[in-house]
Amino acid sequence: MSSEKAEAGTGKPPMRDALVAAAFQLFLERGYEQTTVDDIVALAGVGRRSFFRYFPSKEDVVFPDHERCLADMTDFLADGSDDDEPVGRVCDAARLVLRMYAENPTFSVQRYRLTQQVPGLRAYELSVVWRYERALAAYLRRRFAACRDGTLRADVIAAAVVAAHNNALRSWLRSDGQGEASAAVDRALAYVQSAFGGVPVPPAMEQPEDVVVVVSRRGAPLWRVVQEIETTLGRG
Amino acid sequence: MSSEKAEAGTGKPPMRDALVAAAFQLFLERGYEQTTVDDIVALAGVGRRSFFRYFPSKEDVVFPDHERCLADMTDFLADGSDDDEPVGRVCDAARLVLRMYAENPTFSVQRYRLTQQVPGLRAYELSVVWRYERALAAYLRRRFAACRDGTLRADVIAAAVVAAHNNALRSWLRSDGQGEASAAVDRALAYVQSAFGGVPVPPAMEQPEDVVVVVSRRGAPLWRVVQEIETTLGRG
Lengths: 236, 236
Fold this sequence. Notes:
- The structure is a homodimer.
- Chain A is mainly α.
- The first copy, chain A, is 70% helix and 3% strand.
- In chain A, helix 6 (66-78) runs antiparallel to helix 7 (86-102).
- The longest helix of chain A is centred in the middle third of the chain and has 25 residues, at 119-143.
- At the A-B interface, helix 9, helix 10, helix 11, strand 1 and helix 12 of A face helix 9, helix 10, helix 11, strand 1 and helix 12 of B.
C-alpha cells in the first residue's frame, strides 16, 4: 500500500490501476478463462511479482476495490456513536458499497457481465457479499448485545440490508448503469427500515409506561402503519 | 438416482451412503485436504467411477443431501396454493432444510466443524445457501408479481428467512446438536414473520375502508405492536 501511495504522490497513474485496466481489456477481448496473469503483466508492462504484490490471484483483480471498501465500512461503523439509530447506520454503511460501484459505472457494468458469465467469479462475489454482511451483523450484534434475541435480530437485519442494496444495485447494473443508482438504493433501504427501523435499543433510562393510540384505515399498507407508530414512539 | 433406489429396495445400505460414511471417517482421521477420492473409494470398497456417479467432486460428498433438499423445497413451493400466506410458506420451506440437519445430528455437527475449518467448503456452503435463498425469492417474486416493489420485497424477505434459519441452525450446531433445533428455528422465523408477515398480497376484492384502533404501551417492543396490528387486520 505504501508504494502505491508514493506512486500516486508523484502524479503517475498507480501501477495497480494499470494492472486492472490491462486485465479488463484482455477479459473483454479474450474472455476471463483465456486470459493468464502473464498476459496481464505483459500488457501492463510490469513483472509478475508486481501483480501478486497487489492481487493474491487473478480473481482478485476483478474486484480491486472491495478490500478498501470493506475497510471503509468497518471504520465507518466503528466511528459511530451510541446515539445512532442502528438500522439507519448499517443502511448508511451499505451506501458506501453503492458509491464504489456508482463512481465508475462503465467498469461496474463490465464487471457485472463478467461475473454473470464465470461461475468462479460468481462464487468469489458471494464470499465478498458474505463479508459485507458479517461486517454489518457484527456492528448490529454489538448494538443489540443487551437485547433479547440480539444476535438473531442482527443477522436478519444485516441480511435484509444486503439483499435490499443488491436488489437495487443489480437493477441498475442490468440497465447498463443508466439513471441514479442512489435513488433506487435509498428506496430499497427505506423498505428495510420500515420493517426493522423500530428495533428498540435498550434505553439508557426507564421509559414511562404511557399509552400510544394509533388509528389507521384497515386498507393501509402495514409499512405505513409501522412508520406512523415509529414516529409516534419517537423512534423514527 | 434410479440405481440408488433399486439398491435401497434390496435392503442393502446404498453405495452412496457408504461413500459418505467412508469420506467422513477419513476427513475426521486425516483432515479434509489430506484425503483423496482414491482414499475414499478404497475404504468404501468401490471404484472411482462409482464415486463420480454420485458426486461431481470431493466437495459434494460433504453436502450429500442438499440437492435432494433443494428439489424438495422447489416442489413444496410449487405445490402451494394462492391462499397460502407467502411469508409463512417460505418459512415452512426453510423448515425442510432444518429437518434435513436435525435428522442426523452427529453427522450435521461433524460437517459443521469441518466446514468451519476448510475455506473451500465454506465457499461451497455459501453457494448452496445462495441457491436456497434464490428458490425462496423466486417463489415470493411470483407471489408478489402484482405488488409494487415486488422483487425487492421478495429478495429481502428471502434473505431474512435464510438468515433467521441459519442463525438458529448454527446455534444448535455450535451446541453440538443438543436440545430441540426446531424450537429455535420456529422462534427465529416468527421474528421474520412479525416483521414481514403483513406484506399484503393483492386482495381478490376491495377491502372495506374501515378504521383500526390499536392501543399499546409506549415501552412495548415494536414487533409486539406489529403482531397486534396484524391480528386486528386479520393478516396474522
